[in-house]
Design a protein that fits this description.
With 190 residues, this protein is α/β, with parallel strands linked by helices. It is built from eight helices and six strands, in the order αββααβαβααββαα. The chain has a six-stranded mixed β-sheet with strand order 1-3-2-4-6-5, with helices on both faces. It is globular. The protein binds uracil.
C-alpha cells in the first residue's frame, strides 16, 4: 500500500485493474496539495483530461477553477482534485460499477493521504461511490454528510451546471461557500 502520494501516483500510472486500461491515453490520478484540508472528487476523466493526464482541465474544469477562486478564495493547487475513476470511459460514457470497484482502492488511499477536513463531491457518481447512497442529487445536496469524521458536501457536477440555468450555478456556489465556512471555522461551521 502506497505511503506517499508520489508512490501512489507511480503505481496508479501503470494500473491494469480494469478494461479502461486498454482504451485510455493516460491515467489521470489527481493533483493538488497533499495533505490538504479540502478534497474535490469528480466522476472520471474526459477527452481533454485523458490527453493531458490532469483532472478537470476542459470546460467543466474552467467552471470548477472559477468556483474554487470565487467561492473558496483559493487556486486549484491549494486543494486536492481527483475522480472516482482514473481512466477515461470511452465516448464519455458513465463509469461501470466494475470499473469503479476496481478503481476504489486508489481513491480510498488518496483520501487517507490527503487527509481532508472537507470533501466536495461533484455529481451523482461521486456521491454514490463515496457516501454509498443513491437517489436524486437535489435531495442529497444542501445537507451535510459525515464520513469517518470528514464533512462531505454533495453538489452538482460542473457539466450539469453548464447545461442548466443560473439556479444550478447559484446552488453550486452555495455548496462551495459552505465548505469555505467550515474550513475557516466560521460561527455556523460544523
Ligand atoms: N469531469 C470529471 O468528472 N472529471 C474530470 O476530470 C473532468 C470532467
Amino acid at each position: 500500500m502506497a505511503d506517499s502520494i508520489a508512490l501512489l501516483c507511480a503505481q496508479a500510472l501503470v494500473c491494469q485493474s480494469c478494461g479502461l486500461a486498454t482504451t485510455r491515453t493516460q491515467v489521470v490520478v489527481g493533483e493538488g496539495e497533499v495533505p490538504s484540508d479540502l478534497m474535490i472528487i469528480g466522476e472520471g476523466p474526459g477527452a481533454r483530461e485523458d490527453e493531458l493526464g490532469r483532472p478537470f482541465v476542459g470546460r467543466s474544469g474552467k467552471l470548477l477553477d472559477r468556483l474554487i477562486q470565487e467561492e473558496l478564495g483559493r487556486t486549484r493547487d491549494q486543494v486536492y482534485i481527483t475522480n472516482v475513476v482514473k481512466c477515461r470511459p470511452p465516448n464519455n460514457r458513465d463509469p461501470r460499477p466494475d470499473e469503479m470497484h476496481a478503481c476504489a482502492p486508489w481513491l480510498e488511499r488518496q483520501i487517507v493521504l490527503v487527509d481532508p477536513r472537507v470533501i466536495l463531491l461533484l455529481g451523482k457518481t461521486a456521491v454514490s461511490r463515496v457516501l454509498g447512497v443513491t437517489g436524486s442529487l437535489t435531495a442529497l445536496r444542501g445537507r451535510r454528510h459525515d464520513r469517518n469524521g470528514i464533512l462531505v458536501i454533495p453538489t452538482y457536477h460542473p457539466a450539469y451546471v453548464l447545461r442548466g440555468g443560473a439556479t444550478r450555478l447559484t446552488e453550486m456556489r452555495v455548496d462551495f461557500a459552505r465548505a469555505r465556512l467550515t474550513l475557516s471555522g466560521g460561527p455556523h461551521a460544523t
